Amino acid sequence: MRKRDWFHRGKWMLMAAMATLLLAGCDNRYLVLNPKGPVAETEYRLIVLSAVLCAAVVIPVLALLAFIIYRYRDKPDNKAPYKPDWAHSTTLEVVWWGIPIVIIAILGYFTARTTFALVKPPVTDATPITIQVTSLDWKWLFTYPDQKVATVNYVEIPAGVPVQFVLTSDAPMNSFWVPQLGGQEYTMPGMAMRLWLQADHPGEYFGQGANFTGKGFAHMQFKVIAKPQAEFEAWAQNVRKTAPAMTKEDYTALAKPGLSETRTYSSYPEGLFEEIVKKNGGQEHDHSMNHDGMTHTP
Amino acid sequence: MEMFEEIKSFASTFFVTGDPLIYGADVAIVMTMLAIVFVLTYYKKWGWLWREWLTTVDHKKIGIMYLIASLLMLFRGGVDALLMRLQLAMPDVHFLHSEHYNAIFTTHGTIMILFMAMPMMFALFNIVVPLQIGARDVAYPFLNALSFWLFFFGAMLFNLSFVIGGSPDSGWLAYPPLSELSSSPGVGQNFYIWGIQISGIGSLATGINFLVTILKMRAPGMKLMQMPLFSWSVLSSCVMIIFAFPILTVTLALLFIDRFTGAHFFTLDGGGNPMMYVNLIWMWGHPEVYIVVIPAFGIYSEIVSTFSKKTIFGYKSMVFSMMIISVLSFFTWVHHFFTMGAGADVNTFFAISTMAIGIPTGVKVFNWLFTMFRGRIQMKQPMLWTLAFIPCFVVGGATGVMLAVAPADYQYHNSYFLIAHFHQVLIGGVVFGYLAGIYYWWPKMFGFKLDERLGKWGFWFWNIGFYVCFMPQYALGFMGMTRRVYTYGWDMGWAPLNFVSTVGAFLMGIGFIFQVWQIAYSIKHGERDLTGDPWNGRTLEWSIPSPAPLYNFAVLPQVNSMDAWWEKKQQMQQGEVKQEPVKLEPIHMPKNSAIPFVMSFFWFIAGFGFTFLWVWMAVAGLIGVGICLLVRSFQYDTDYYISVDEIRRTEKALGRAV
Predict the structure, then answer these.
(1) Does domain A129-283 bear CATH number 1.10.1040.10?
(2) Which positions in chain B touch A280 (Cβ < 8 Å)?
(3) What is the pTM of this model?
(4) Is residue B574 within 8 Å of residue B549, measured between CB atoms?
C-alpha cells in the first residue's frame, strides 16, 4: 500500500513540475519563450508545435504505464487477466509503428518548411542592413560596413529592420546567440556565416557566446540595443564624430586573449573583417561553400 | 644547488600544484595505494591477485573487474559533477576558478561516457552473454583480457592527469582549434588523446570479440531468432562499435599528429579545417550514445519479461527496431551542430533522420508496456529501475525529438535545455539500465542478492534527485543559460533554479552512498542464492549455479525455443522431461596469461611518453608492446582440458547431480 502512495505522490510532483514549466513562459526571464522579433517568433512557434506533438504521445504513454502497473501488479487477489504466453498482435504493432510515423511526418514537414524559410531575410518593407561579427578571446567585435563604425561587447541595431549578421571568429569557434531575437549560429575561423535577425521593437536584448572557448568564455556577454531607425543613424553619426578610430595595432591588441569593457570606435581599418576571414584560411574554401546559409566573403 | 633548482622547477610543472583539492587528492591516492599494498602483503594475497585476477582470461572475472573499475569511475565522475554543481549553486561563487571548472567538466564528460558507461556495459557483456547463449567463454578469451587491461591502463593514464601534468580542459570532445597546441599548449590534451586511444583499441577488440562469440558460439539449436534480447542488443551494439570506433581512433590520431608534428589537419592556418574534426568526432560520437543505450534496452527487455512473468511482447519488432536504430545512428551526426549552418538541405535531412530514430524507439516502449499488460508485475529492484526508466526515457526522448527540429535547435543548442536532455536519456536510459542489470545479474556474479531495503532507499534518492536536478535545467535553457559557463551574475535570474538543481545532484550522490552501503551490507547479510535461479528467470544463465563454475555449463544445453530455460521449467513441471543420463566430456579451456596485463602496461608507458613528448619513453613502451606480440605469437601451450572427474567434483560441490 505504501508503495502506491509513493507512486501517486511522485505523479503529482511531476505534473506540478510540468505545470510550473508551462506557466513559466509568462515570466519574462524565459528569454526563448518571449520572442521579440520575427525569427525568434517563428522558432518559438515551432517549439510550441513540437512540444504539443510530443506531449500528445508522452501523456497517453505515461497514463498507460500508470494504469498497467496498477492493474497488473503481482498480488494474490488481483482479478485482472494473466496471459503469460500472449506475445504478439499484428493490429497493435501496426498501430504503434503507425503513430510515431504520423507524428514524425507532421513534425518533419514543418521542420523542413521553417528550415528553408529561415535562410531568407524576414519579410518587411525596410532595407536590410549588414553587421559583421567577430568573436575573439574573450570579447565580441562588431563592425558596421554601412555606418563605418565599430563596437566591442555591444551592438546597436535599427528596430523593425532585418539585420544580416555576418559571423566569423579570430579565435576558437564560438556561437552568436541573442535568444529573444532568434537562434544562434557558430562563428568559425575562416568562414563568414550569415544569420538573419530582427528586433520588432526598440529595447535592450541579452546576447552571449554559446560555444565554449576556454578561460574567459563565461564572460562573453553583450547587449543588443535596438533603436528606431532615425535614432540608430543619429547614434552612428555621433560615434563617427566623437569616438576614437581603431587602428590595426588597436585590433591586434584587442584580439589578444583577455576580457574587455564595452568600446566604441568611429572607424576601423578598411576591409578588416574580410582580412580576418582570409587570414584564417578563408581562401581555401572558395568554391565549395557557396550555397544557402553559408557564404564566402571574398 | 643548481641541480636542486632544476628538479624543483621540473617537479612544479610535472605535478599539478597550487590547489587544495588536488593536494587532498594526492594524499588520498598515496594513502589508498599504501593501504592496498599493506593489505595484500599482510594477508599474503599478491600471488592470489596475480593468479586469479591479473592474469585471468575467464569472462566472468573480467566482467567483475570491469564492474569494479566502472563503479570507481562513476565515483570520480560523480565527484566532478558535484563540484560543478557546487560552483553553480549560486551566482558569483569563487569555489573553482575558470580553468579548474573547465578541466572538471571535461573530465566529467569523458570519464562518464568512456570510462564509466563503456566498461559498465562491457562488464555486463562479459558476465551475461556467454552464459545467456550457452557458451563456455567468449570467442577470443586472450583478446578479451587484453581489452580489459587496455581499457584499465587507458583510464589510469587519463586519470593521472589530475595530479600529474594537468587535466585536459577543452571539453569532452575537444574541438579544435581550442584543443590544438595554439590554444591548449599543456599536456592535458595529450593525456586525453592517449587515454582514449589506448582504451579505444580495447573497445574495438571487445566489439569484434562479442560479435564473433554471438555469431559462432551459441548453444546447439539456438537460432538467431531464438536468442535472448540482451544478446541481440549486444550484437547490435558490437556492429556499431566496429564501424564507429575506427573513426574515433583516426580522428584523435590526426589531432595528435597536429599537436606533435605541427601538421595542419584541424588548425586555423596552413589549410586546416576544424569543421572536419567536428564532423568526424560526431560520426563516432553519435553512434557511441546508441552503443551504450542499446544494451540497456536489451537489459530492460529481459527484466520486463522476467518480472511480469510473461513472454516479451513483439520479439521480432524488438529485434528489428534495434537493428534499424544501429543503422540509422550513423546518419544523424550533423544534429549535434545544426548551428554550423551547413545549409537548409543538409539540416533538413539530418533533422528528419534524427526524428526517424524516435519511431523504432517508440515501438520498443510500447512493446515493453504490452509485455507487462496481462502479466504479473513484481516490484523487485531490477524492475523498479526499469519502471523508473520508462517515464524518464519517454520524456527525454520527447525532448530529443524537440531538439531534432533544426530551426528550434538554434534556440536550444549548447543551452541547459540540451544538458537536461542528454542527461535524461543517459542517466534515465543508460545508467538506470545498467543499474537494473547489475541488480538483476548480481546473484549470478556473486551468489547473493543485494539487500532490498537499502536498495529502495538508493533508488528513491536517485530518482527524486534526478528530477530535482535536471527538470530545472530545461527551464534554465529557456532562460538562455549556456553550458560550460563557470559562473553567472545575479541579473539573469538563473540563481533559484540552479540552486534547486544542485540540491538534486546531491540527492543523487546520497543515492550512490546508499548503494555502496547496500553492497557492503549485502556481502555479509545478503540473501544467498542456492538455486542459481533467484528470480524465476527465463534464459540459460539461470539454469546453472550462482556463481557459475569456471566452465559455465557441464553439458552444453540443447535449445529448441525462445526463453529456453523457462520452456524447460514448464516441461519439467508437466513431467515431460525424461532424466536422460548425461555423458560428461573433458572441457577445453584457455590458459591464463600475463601478456594482456604486461602488454597493456607497456602501452601505458608508451602513452605516458607520448603525453610528455618524451620520445625515448614512447619508443621503449612500443618496443615492449612489440615484444609481447612476438612472445604471444610463438606461444603454443595456451589451452588445457578440465577432466571429467574434476567436472563431476565441481558439480557435486555445487549441489548439482551429474
Answers:
(1) no
(2) 268-269
(3) 0.93
(4) no
